């Protein structure tokens, strides 16, 4: 039976860097955020988005992810509607991905909103990557060229660090990415033996 290990953390916590490290070691990693972005381009999802969120989030017939982000991260009701469209599709996509990787003893499901989406319920263990908020903000501003206000809007639409840590089986402090990668790797290796 394949163990599903949830890997989560707030925006800018370093979870994707750590997930990529685990992937380089041969662990299958499902990146929920990347898959969700891909799913956003499917015809069925695009049609639902037009109906539910309006055509103003499209530019020249294509989904404008910046307009979508600005809309949903400034309106909790719109974010909820988006999630009601995306989460079921990601759940099906993950189930299909898991079937392909069923012969692996352990897989990693990386998701920024693992708890908010309810996906944690399918995991055998959850690891939260934690980092001080000021460091996270600096990382995201640099990485995504967002303003401080835009980053804070995203942070405020996620669970707090305390909420995530209280629901997690393991918490890794990521003030130093190399140390955090090794700590997470060791947790995964230990989980392989249980």
Helix-strand blueprint:
Elements: E1 3-8, H1 15-24, E2 29-31, H2 32-39, H3 43-53, E3 58-59, E4 62-63, H4 65-72, H5 76-100, E5 106-110, E6 125-130, H6 133-144, H7 148-156, H8 161-167, E7 170-173, H9 177-192
Parallel strand pairs: 1-5, 1-6, 2-5, 6-7
Antiparallel strand pairs: 3-4
Helix pairs in contact: 1-9, 2-5, 3-5
Question: What general form does the structure show?
Answer: globular
Beta-strand content estimate: 5-15%
| Series of H and E elements | EHEHHEEHHEEHHHEH
- Please describe the biggest sheet, giving its number of strands, its sense, and whether it closes into a barrel: 5 strands, parallel
Q: Which structural class fits the helix and strand makeup?
A: alpha/beta
Q: Mean pLDDT, as a whole number? A: 94
Radius of gyration: 17 Å
Strand order of the largest sheet: 2-5-1-6-7
Distance between the termini: 12 Å
DSSP helical segment count: 9
């Amino acid at each position: 039976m394949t163990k599903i290990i949830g890997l989560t953390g707030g925006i800018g916590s370093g979870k994707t860097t750590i997930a990529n490290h685990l992937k380089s070691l041969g662990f299958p990693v499902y990146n929920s955020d990347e898959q969700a972005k891909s799913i956003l381009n499917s015809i069925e999802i695009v049609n639902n988005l037009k109906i539910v969120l309006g055509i103003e989030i499209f530019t020249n017939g294509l989904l404008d992810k910046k307009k979508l982000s600005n809309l949903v991260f400034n309106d909790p009701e719109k974010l909820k509607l988006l999630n009601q469209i995306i989460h079921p599709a990601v759940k099906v996509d993950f189930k299909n991905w898991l079937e392909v990787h069923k012969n692996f003893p352990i897989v990693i499901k990386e998701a920024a909103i693992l708890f908010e989406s309810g996906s944690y319920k399918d995991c055998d263990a959850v690891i939260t990557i934690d980092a001080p908020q000021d460091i996270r903000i600096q990382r995201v501003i640099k990485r995504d060229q967002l303003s401080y206000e835009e980053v804070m809007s995203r942070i405020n639409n996620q669970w707090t660090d305390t909420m995530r840590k209280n629901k997690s089986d393991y918490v890794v402090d990521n003030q130093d990415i190399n140390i955090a990668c090794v700590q997470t790797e060791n947790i995964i290796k230990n989980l392989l033996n249980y």
